[in-house]
Amino acid sequence: MAIQGTLATMSVADLLQFLAVGKKTGTLKFSHAKVVKGIYFEDGIIVGSSTNDPKEYLGQVLIHYGKINEAQLQAAMEVQRSRGRGRLGNILVEQKIVTEEEVAELLKVRTLDIIYDLFIWKEAHFEFVVEETLPEDFTRIDVEPTMVIMEGIYRADEITRFHTLIPSDRAVMDLGSGWTSSLTVSKEVRQLLFFVGKRMSVAEICYNMHAAPFEIYAKLFDLVSRGLAVVTGELPETPDPLSAEADLPESTPELLTLAQDELQNDNADRSLTIIHKVLSHEPKNPTAQNLLVKAEEKFIKQVYSEMSPDGVPKIVINPDALSEKNIGPQEGFMLSRINGEWDIQSILSICPFREADSLRLIKTLLDNGIIGF
Fold first, then answer.
1. Which of 109, 170, 288, 357 is most buried, with most CB under 10 Å away?
2. Nearest C-alpha neighbor of 95 from the set 81, 110, 75
3. What is each CA distance from 329 to 196, 202, 219, 321, 325, in whole angstroms?
4. Rounded to 5 degrees, what are φ and ψ at 121?
5. Could you give the CA distance from residue 157 to residue 172 in angstroms, rounded to a whole number?
6. What would the mean pLDDT of 3-18 be, rounded to a whole number?
7. DSSP H/E element including 162
């Protein structure tokens, strides 16, 4: 049996319940734009999950829970690159930075969080594949879908409640009248308040704390409710780079033809912009997905032909000039890791973004004269 559709026709909760009652074995895949997640079933029981979203990779989870820092993650991934293989958790255990028990525990937390996040998605294409073999190295959990459904629905309801005070991840806050430096709070909340005081957006706080949005929203909601933080506004939405082009094709086939032409003309960056536009409306479009892989590969090669992965970027404009630039949350995170010491590879290893997306951010900062080498 194979089922497919969108979240507009069947909710995540209904899908999990359907597969549980039918005692199905296989993989339930969800895709939205560039993000693809999977939930593994055996006889109707959830046994694991997968994701291609770097924000949900083990390294990011270990940083968030204070098991490692960014420098340790960078060093471990350098070892991983030099070997050409090896699981990050095993490398960190070898280096005696974490224990096997800590890795196992957080892998299970990560496995469930990957699934819970799906309940917050508004749009996605889904497909259940019966014949697909489960990966040998996935983290097994054995969880009844009913338990996952209850937690997932709770989180979706909570996010709706959080949005009554914090409208979006573009929201910017400042310290409230209830905050004093002598207030007793946890280390994590103090760090959160530090970022609030720097007037970071919610999205940028999530990146800097290597945390899932749900957890950050929950803590910020509590701080705003207690008067320790106050929402002061929202950053403008990032404009679509193609929105100003009056003669841009409207149909998907024409857009994909244009993306292919741009790629053949070595304009991989523009090709990616067009492909992303298509995938934002049709995440399961096979032509766009295949073209995305080719465009990213070509773009990465083009960038590395212009800048060495061993190159060390530096911020080349003064803080006053930087404050006048329209810096988005991802660019802000990237800039905060450009310290004049780390090379490109080191920076990318700790970023919660895909390699092509990270390099596009760096290229944009370089083209705008914000960083140099």
1. 288
2. 75
3. 13, 9, 19, 17, 12
4. -65, 140
5. 22
6. 93
7. helix 145-162
Q: Which two tokens stand for residue 157?
A: 């309801």
Range 130-148 average pLDDT? 83
pLDDT tens track for 72-88? 999 999 999 888 778 89
- How far apart CA 188 and CA 288 sit, in angstroms, is 41
Contact 87, 137 (CB under 8 A): yes
Residue type, 142: D
Instruction: Check if the beta carbon of residue 48 is closer than 8 Å to that of residue 140.
Output: yes
First to last CA, the chain: 55
Radius of gyration of the chain (CA): 22
- For the entire predicted model, the pTM comes to 0.87
Structure tokens at 273: 């912009």
Strands (E), 82-203: 125-129, 171-175
163-234: CATH class: mainly alpha
According to DSSP H, which parts of 31-95 are helical?
58-64, 70-83, 88-94
